Hints:
The protein is an all-beta fold. Helix content is 0%, strand content 44%. It has a domain at 28-77. The protein has strands at residues 28-38, 42-53, 60-65, 72-77. The strands form two sheets. The chain has a two-stranded antiparallel sheet. Strands 3-4 form a two-stranded antiparallel ribbon. Strand 1 and strand 2 (42-53) form a beta hairpin. The protein is elongated, with a radius of gyration of 14 Å. Residues 1-68 form the C2 domain. It holds the Pfam family C2.
Amino acid sequence: CVCSSMVPSSRNPLWGEEFNFLVRELPVEVTITMYDWDTVCKCKVIGSVTVAVLGEDEAGATWFDLDSKSGQVKCKIDE
């Protein structure tokens, strides 16, 4: 499990953070879950997406829709 930093008081947060994962075998699936966190109700799931990486030829950046009413996350896959 890897966590990004929190973007306070934003309805359209941009993180610009990068996380690296060593993958030993393909295919692999990576699940990304976005949370809304505040001091009153702690955390609430905004949405999530599971990204399937089938092979090394899938390198590049792609926007993925979250499984909620709105929201996207951009993932970049490098070889």
